[in-house]
Task: structure prediction
Amino acid sequence: MTEINSLDPETRCLVLVAKFLQKWASMEAAIHTAMQIALELDAFQAAIVTRNTQLRSKLNILRTLISGAPFEKDKITRFKKTLDDIAKASGDRNMLAHDAFTPSSDGKAVSFSVTKAKGGPLSFPETLWDVSRFEAEYAKIERLQASVAEIIEAINRKQVIDRMREATRTNPAVLYDYGFVQGMSPLLQSLNSETEVAAPKKDD
Result:
């Protein structure tokens, strides 16, 4: 692989940012896998659901699933911290994905054109990331992805899915309230077939 510091500043800029975004996309794909397994979605359903769900909501979905899973308290705390860390890191991801960037004046870093204009004075803080900062961020994303993989492994066990299914089955009225019983997923189809729920009575 080409040594990053041997590249000209413009090319180095592009490579550093692209590598960050590639690593983030890989980590977010792991989040999609966790959602697919926990919600028992097929690939078609998972593609639609994850494409139409913002990262914040994806993390909230996983937080709820983890809270309802039969895990030890310390494991739940650790898994939720992973999701919180991803949420915090998403600010940097948004900067790299949406803000303009150029080589810094000395050519040794990437300069991002950041604008602050939410609830406070308008400002344009200087934001520079050098190679060492990028490498630290790559390592952080890799750690987060490894932690998401641990969540996937923990959820992907029959007894965990069964316990989560049972928790939902104890309140089948919720399924009617939200109109899910008719089969959005194999999980709900099985609930519908395994649980007799009286339809709301109509007045004579």
The chain has two domains: 4-156, 157-196. The longest strand covers residues 109-113. The two ends are 77 Å apart (CA to CA). The mean pLDDT is 85.
